[in-house]
Amino acid sequence: MKHYLSINDVDCLPGWVDEAIALKQNPYQFQKLGKHKTICLLFFNNSLRTRLSTQKAAMHLGMEVMVMNFGSEGWVLEYEDGTIMDQGTSEHIKEAAKVVSQYCDIVAIRAFAQLKDKEKDEAEQVLNGFAKFASIPVVNMESSIAHPLQALADAITLKEHETKSRPKVVLSWAPHPKALPHAVANSFVEMMKLQETDFVITHPKGYELNPEITARCTIEYNQQKALENADFVYVKNWSSYINYGQVLSKDLAWTMTREKLGNAKFMHCLPVRRNVVVEDAVLDGNQSLVVEQANNRTFSAQIVLKKILETL
Ligand code: CP
Q: Which member of 57, 96, 235, 290 lies 3.0 to 4.6 Å from 302 by CB, making a disulfide possible if both were Cys?
């Protein structure tokens, strides 16, 4: 595997999940694999889990780690070809990616959607720019349209908690005061399509995700009906895709409650707005898997880095 840009870069999801669960039992067993290898984590946006879990995963593998808040500390990058750079940008992605490749063996990038221009976001300028011009493997730590490390952690969490071979999993939209990207929901849907489950997506009309991603998925606009007999409920806000980046609804009737959850396990990638996205009673109750999901971020990153290190 050259890069990890999408959950579809996983060649065998059940195999990777089993391997990650085994790594969890003995995280330091591949310490020698990363000896004298360096990973550089470049953040164009904020993070808690991704930053610490990816760093921890690399340390488990014996790697050196360099972290840079590129968004606030780096030069403003130019992505277009042939630009006369006499305005706000200071360095071209071509040089930046090639230079970063001199200092490390793997580079991991976080660069969110701007939610202003769908075409520009879908072009994944930052992630694809690094993948194109770097001479080293690139790992996606959440880009404009995908968060594959989160989706892999979610697959691990589902596997650890499933009690039947074909559980019912519901992805439910929830309200949020701000416009959020589609990356987490997109990668969760793509991950669910890689496995055998009864999968339903529920959201208000106008919140349909990219139809290319949700092709062949069941969409139920009635949340109550969607949640019937659910084993896992994954809650996430995203802004409208059709009316790109717009907040069309803040309807608290979509907030996840204990009553609606029933006997299902609750999942969310975090960070989460309490009593907007989900009520306290769910997060503080014993059906919540959110902290386990966060813990599994270390092992999703570790299995990805291990697979890459094995090719270097
Ligand atoms: N879930 C997730 O990616 O968390 P952070 O944004 O804190 O990294």
A: 57
